[in-house]
Design brief:
The protein has about 90 residues and is of the alpha+beta class. It has one domain. The protein is built from two helices and four strands, in the order E-E-E-E-H-H.
Length: about 90
């Protein structure tokens, strides 16, 4: 797999990868990531053509999905990770 290039975005890191059989667009936002994989075609074989796929509508959906992912992870973390125990040191007066 090699990096075909990057797509500029103010919030997301967007990297385009290419293998012999697949293209991948990876979106990173903090600790979360989304990757979309597809087979290259004559219309989607260069960074310029892939850049056209990543339009405003698609980016809005990706950002919305990241918000859902953050909520999902926050919920499972709250359910499954016990809050830190208070230190049981006596109060100093």
């Amino acid at each position: 797999m090699r990096i075909l290039g990057y797509i500029d975005h103010p919030v997301l890191k967007i990297t385009v990868f290419k293998t012999d059989t697949r293209l991948s667009i990876k979106f990173e936002n903090g600790d979360l990531e989304q990757t979309y994989k597809f087979r290259p075609s004559q219309q989607t074989n260069s960074l310029k053509e892939i850049n056209a796929l990543v339009d405003d509508t698609f980016l809005a959906q990706v950002l919305k999905r990241f918000e859902g992912m953050k909520q999902d992870f926050g919920s499972t973390f709250t359910r499954n990770v016990a809050p830190p125990e208070e230190d049981e040191f006596p109060s100093i007066i």
